[in-house]
Amino acid sequence: MTYSTNFSIEDLRFDNYGLIPAIAQDWLDGSILMLAWMNKESLTMTLETKNVHYWSRSRSEIWRKGATSGSTQILKEIRFDCDNDALILLIEQNGSGACHTGEKSCFFNEIKINQSDKKEKKTTPFSNICSELFN
Amino acid sequence: MTYSTNFSIEDLRFDNYGLIPAIAQDWLDGSILMLAWMNKESLTMTLETKNVHYWSRSRSEIWRKGATSGSTQILKEIRFDCDNDALILLIEQNGSGACHTGEKSCFFNEIKINQSDKKEKKTTPFSNICSELFN
């Protein structure tokens, strides 16, 4: 269940650097594309323009996603969590993908875990079902 | 595309507090359940036991998810991102849900954005399709 809320940026809890983590999720297939950071200003710019803006921790500047690459992100929905310190951005991803490597998602590295666990799968996981549906 | 990798925890980039953000995603329906934090020890315990352990920033202690509530999380897959500083945990959620409020997901608060944007939707978003499929 999702509740709409009368929202003020002041309700959010930013960390000691003035930042909040923002998870970008593909609004069509639900895949997680990236995790980046926002400050109040970049969040405000995102809400006002629908073009997702992050705070670049390496460059210490506001960063309009895709400004140079063309891989812009258009905000469709935005949610925050129960303790007000994390965001989900449901976005439409333009261009080749969210990742600077050219991959659709930044999370392309899988850590191998005990393979015996995989044998226990009795149902088709989400990623397979939605890949077939949307690709 | 996902690449399996020979993984060392030392390859990951933990922040100045020794922590890395971990996004818990339901392995069956792809919904994002929560964002929490791990240190090296809680990540190691998670990989060894398949029971997800986080670092509680409020209590400054390792926290086995669901230890008191029963809402444990069983690790199915784990990925890290292109700059090695964020994790996705694909998990099987036990109990009533991931959130201490009783909700399935901690991200139940939606921020209202310009409603004219919603009128532009021409396709059925992921959340609706997968709700129908899995619920």
Structural notes for this entry:
With 135 residues, chain A is of the alpha+beta class. Chain A has a single domain (9-134), classed as Phosphoribosyl-AMP cyclohydrolase (Ubiquitin-like (UB roll), Roll), CATH 3.10.20.810. Chain A is 18% helix and 32% strand. The first copy, chain A, is built from 3 helices and 8 strands, in the order E-E-E-H-E-E-E-E-E-H-H. In chain A, the strands form 2 sheets. A 4-stranded mixed sheet of chain A has the order 3-2-7-6, with helices on one face. The radius of gyration of chain A is 17 Å and the shape is globular. Chains A and B meet through strand 1, strand 2, strand 3, strand 6 and strand 8 of A and strand 1, strand 2, strand 3, strand 6 and strand 8 of B.
How are the SSEs placed, and which strands pair?
The structure is a homodimer of 135-residue chains.
Chain A (H helix, E strand, L loop, with lengths): L2 E3 L14 E7 L5 E7 L1 H10 L3 E4 L4 E4 L8 E8 L6 E7 L15 E3 L3 H5 L6 H9 L1
Parallel strand pairs in A: 2-7
Antiparallel strand pairs in A: 2-3, 4-5, 6-7
